[in-house]
Structure formats: structure tokens, C-alpha cells
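Glycerol-3-phosphate ABC transporter, ATP-binding protein UgpC
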Amino acid sequence: MAGISIQSLHKQFPDGTVAVHEIDLEINDGELFVLLGPSGCGKTTTLRCIAGLETQTSGDIRIGDKLVNDLRPGERDIAMVFQFYALYPHLTGRENIGYPLRAAGVPKAEAEARIDAVARTMRLDGLLQRKPNKLSGGEQQRIALARAMVREPQAFLLDEPLTNLDAELRLDMRTELKHLQDRLGATMVMVTHDQVEAMSLGDRIALINDGRLEQVGTPLEVYDRPASLFAATFIGTPAMNILPVEVDGGALRGPSGLRLPIPAGLPRVDGLVAGVRAEWLSIAPPTGGGGGAARVVAREALGDETIYAVDMGGTRVHVRTPPTVRFDAEDTVDVTFVGTDPRVYHEVSGKVAA
Ligand code: ATP
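Predicted C-alpha cells:
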């Protein structure tokens, strides 16, 4: 297996569209690395450049120590699994998996042994004699992954590999993919627009917006310390609250007098907003003390937790509470910050201020 290094990757299509803007990425050997971002942000183009299916306008791509800029896809020693995993309909599962080995001229006995080993890993024994139309979507997906694995490539590139599956199967396949990756120690780069998938699967996530890298980090880093307003609002459900704030002595003052601690090193400038996760706030009956006064607008009871939407002087704020906290619409409550530090951003540039 091998890491993948990308330097100043830039891709402009002939019609002038710049899909990827000078992106740098260091993907570690054995890492499950996720490219996450909204539709059209350039994830797939980045992946296709790594695969060699698209030629970058400029920049370097290395797989292991090898510069692969001028290598054709087949020479890059990577396997790509697409959202639409096209299996050959007239071939059995076994023949589908073995196809790349046959194409590469691997001797039959060795090929059979490798197919058996991969089928065991993917728990496909018993399904190998069936043709694709006799396999479920999830089983077809596993055959497609097995076909990619059987060549023992240096790295796997996965483009929305779970998108076509129903919710339950998706969950199973997520677990399966994670186990598989752990077991193989394989370097995997996966594209998804699904933040839950990215958070649950990724060792690290690269968040891309409009062809540019917004942030690279572990799921927790990206969740707790979003590097930009875009990152703050893209990741998490509900999205991070973005609250107008002013520096007020030794604290930040938000809507309705909500007080927040000042993160170290915050510049004393105007035009700041604070990013506050719903679980960094709590609500309680009003005491007339230091909390920010708010009116309950809506309550969403999710069983294990409840999400309140409250109005704080015209700003809608989400608060996550245990299910035992019960208020009704129109109740007056106090909102208190119970997190460590809010994130603070420059409102106009969206860049982090502290
Ligand atoms: P999605 O999640 O919808 O697949 P994506 O993040 O993978 O989106 P890309 O497919 O990489 O996005 O596309 C990035 C941008 O490049 C988009 O604006 C897209 O319209 C544009 N694009 C992609 N392929 C071409 C092409 N061959 N010619 C011109 N523009 C293209």
C-alpha cells in the first residue's frame, strides 16, 4: 500500500470551468481519506485526476514515491470503484471478480486462490456462482469491491460507493467497508457528499467548496473546530448556530445578552460572528440571571435527545438537550453557553478569527 501526495492540483476544463483550484493533499498510507463537499465542488474531478482518468492542468500527483502525472490509469496501480458499479451481467460473481486477473494474464491456479481469498474477506462465499441479476444491490456492491481488491492495488479510489444502496444496507456496507479497510490496511480515498458517511468512515476528511480546500482534519477536528464559516455550516445536524457577537469587556455578547467566553487571541474588531454547536448551549426556566432570554419556537423530540429552536431577539438558535428537558412553544427560557470556547469568524470573509 502507498500514500498519495497531491501538490497544487489545478484542473480547468476546456470550456473554462475551474473544477479544482490549487489543492494540496497528503493522504497517508493505510488511511481512509474522504473528499467531502456539496455537489459540483470538484470532488470527483480530484479523484479522477488521481486515477488518471482526467489530466490535470497543472500540479503533481504521487502514489507512493512515484510521480504518476504522465502514467495512464492502468499503470498507476490503483483500483477505482464507482457509484454505478457495472458488473458484467453475463458473468457469474466469481468470473466478475476474476476478470481483472484474467485480463492481466495471472495463471489460473493463482487467480482462483486470490478470488477465494477475496471472497472470504468480503463474505461472498455461496454467492460466487450467481449472475448479477440474482444478487441484491449490496451483494453486487461487494462483488464490485472484491473485483477492485483482487488486483491488490496500492490504493483504492471510491466515488460515492454507497450512494445507490437503501438506508439499512448503507449502514451495513459502511461498517463492512470500515472493517475491510482496517483488515487490509488499505489506502482508500472516498468521495461523498454525505457528511454522516464522511464522519463515520473517514480517518480524515478534506472539505472542499467551489474547487478549494476549506479544511483537512479528523472528523472530530472538523466538527469541533471548523476552519471557516462554510465548514461550520456544512457539517453537523442541526448546522452550527452562527450568532452575531460583539466584544464586551472580557466576554463576547451575543443576541439577547447571551454571554460567550472569548477565545484566546481574538482580535478586537467589528464584524465577528460566533459558531456555537447546539450542544454547547443549554436552556432553563428564566432566572433573571446571566442567561440570554429566549422564546421557544419549536421542539423536535428525537427520542434520545431533543432539539429546540428558540428565538433570541430575532436570531433563530438551535439547542440540543436531553429528552427529559421539556418546554413548550412560546415558553420563555434562558439560554446559557456550556461549551468550552465558541468558534469566532469574520462575517464577511468567512475566515476563522480565533
Ligand atoms: P457531484 O457531487 O455532483 O458529483 P463533484 O463535487 O464531484 O459533484 P465535479 O464532478 O468534480 O464535482 O465537478 C466540478 C465542477 O466541474 C462542476 O462545476 C462541473 O460542472 C464541472 N465539470 C465537470 N466535468 C466537466 C467537464 N468535462 N467539462 C466542463 N466542466 C466540467
